[in-house]
Write a structure and sequence with these properties.
Length: 242
């Protein structure tokens, strides 16, 4: 029995060392997988086992603009990492004006909300212009409101497996972006508005989620917030105006 315990302990220590050598995004993926296996609440392991970020208010200069260490840390998490554990040396951002065409169940309150989000983004971003267009041929960003099966048929290049459990989704291609909001499974108006804001903003290059700030539009857990948190605005500004 003693030898067995020693062997189990040795293997556990070895696995722990390997885990510590992994990047934080990969560690996060491992913990999320364990949460699913052991039927735990989302975020339980990540919040308790991964080291907390240093969010002190020390300021730094980025291209002559001053950002807090908190903002820079959040920028690195949201912009330089994605939801699948991949990290990037350089951020992605749109360099041409974003022209949005809407398809599917174009409900008035969602079209109004889209106009509001676009207006807010244009107030923050100074390097490109975002607008909603009437002709599909003029667009480079396509938003679909409706059922994921219809979205999948309309855009077969999207892997259907990524839609089954997601009520909101985006994909970025070289020349265009696709955004989907399920207005049937997400049947609350605020939930639909939240998904629209989150997916549209993420399609601009803010590609990751995080458990750090519950008030953020990029919060990993389920929320129905329909406003950008101040730190969201700072991260968008940092990406596009530098």
């Amino acid at each position: 029995m003693g030898k067995l315990l020693d062997r189990v302990l040795g293997i556990s220590v070895f696995l722990f060392i390997i885990f510590c050598l992994l990047s934080k995004p990969v560690q996060s993926r491992v913990l999320k997988g364990l949460e699913v296996i052991f039927d735990m609440n989302s975020g339980d392991l990540e919040n308790n086992l991964l080291p907390k970020e240093d969010t002190s208010q020390t300021t730094k200069y980025v291209n002559n603009k001053v950002y807090s260490k908190e903002t820079i840390s959040y920028f690195n998490k949201i912009v330089l990492n994605d939801e699948y554990g991949k990290s990037y040396e350089e951020p992605f951002k749109r360099t041409e004006d974003v022209k949005i065409y809407v398809q599917g169940d174009r409900r008035d309150y969602l079209m109004d909300e889209l106009d509001r989000i676009v207006s807010e983004l244009n107030d923050i971003i100074q390097t490109i212009e975002i607008e909603v267009v009437d002709n599909k041929s003029d667009a480079n960003t396509f938003i679909f409101f409706g059922d994921y099966n219809k979205f999948d048929k309309l855009y077969p290049q999207v892997n259907e497996k990524n839609l089954v459990h997601n009520w909101g989704y985006f994909e970025i291609y070289n020349a265009y972006s696709l955004i989907y909001v399920d207005v049937y499974r997400a049947d609350e108006i605020d939930a639909q508005k939240h998904l629209l804001r989150e997916e549209l903003t993420q399609s601009l290059g803010l590609i990751n989620d995080s458990y750090t700030y519950p008030e953020s539009i990029f919060y990993q857990g389920w929320t129905t917030t329909t406003e950008y948190a101040p730190i969201d605005r700072e991260v968008i500004d940092m990406l596009y105006n530098n």
